[in-house]
Amino acid sequence: MLRVENVDLYYGASQALRGVGVEATAGRVTTVLGRNGVGKTSLLRAVVGQQAIAAGRIEWEDEDIGALPPHARAARGIAYVPQGREIFPLLTVEENLHTGYAALPRSLRHVPDEIFDLFPVLKDMLGRRGGDLSGGQQQQLAIARALVTRPRLLVLDEPTEGIQPSIIKDIERVIKLLAARGDMAILLVEQYFEFAHQLADSINVMDRGEVVMAGDKDDLVEDDVRRYLTV
To answer: DSSP for 49-105?
Structure first.
């Protein structure tokens, strides 16, 4: 469903990505691992259209989307949960969920019941402001907001960052359920190896702006992967 080929990306004169290639398909979790500053978030920003690429190609469902703005990609079924969550702190939980409507036709502008099946805690907090939630609850809200758009590609940037272990387990459960449905591709950036390894069908390891190791999880040697994650 998603094919990234030979992508270069720059911030001014600094090159963040060098010939990067990644694929993500429905029913599978594709993980991108690496230390801080190796280009993981830049890759996701390129996929969702928040940063223009200098070379290469990004295809989604056989369409070249490399020149499309973020809202056009969202309308095509690509949802992004950014690092740091970026929920609206002064809006209520319900209002935060409603911001996902922007990418939808009017007929689909409602919150699916499935959202509250996946994140029951949110149903009891609809009237609370987003900024009053714990970090873990805000992360659940950020994922739920993305799911409101009915994505076919869910892009997650370090969803475990600053989250308590019990909610990490809840997020892991949700990602497994979404992948098991078979109609959604999941692209996950992580530094927490155990979480990523539990979920991954395929692993891409980045270093200095390049993919230095890639393959199905069972085909990669765990110690080789971990070597690129240690400081």
So the answer is: TSS--SEEEEEETTEE-TT--HHHHHHTTEEEE-TT----TTSBHHHHHHGGGGGS-
Mark 59-97 as b/e (b = at least 16 C-beta within 10 Å).
ebeeeebbebeeeebbebbbbbbbeebebeeeebbeebb
CA–CA dist 47, 125 (Å, integer): 32
Q: How far is CA 96 from CA 4, 138, 148, 218, in A?
A: 30, 10, 10, 39
Task: Give the integer Cα–Cα distance in Å for 51 and 194.
Answer: 29
Q: What is the pLDDT of residue 230?
A: 76
Q: CATH code at 37?
A: 3.40.50.300
Distance CA 143, CA 170 (A): 12
The pLDDT tens digits of the residues spanning 88-119 come to: 999 999 999 999 999 999 999 999 999 999 99
- Number of domain units in the chain: 1
DSSP SS3 for 229: coil
- Helices 135-148/165-181 angle, 10° precision: 20
Give the pTM: 0.94
pLDDT in tens, 17-55: 999 999 999 999 999 999 999 999 999 999 999 999 999
Distance between CA atoms of residues 126 and 111, nearest Å: 12
- Asked if residues 31 and 44 have their Cβ atoms less than 8 Å apart, the reply is no
Q: Which of 199, 226, 203 is nearest to 213 (CA)?
A: 203
Q: Which domain holds residue 213?
A: 2-227
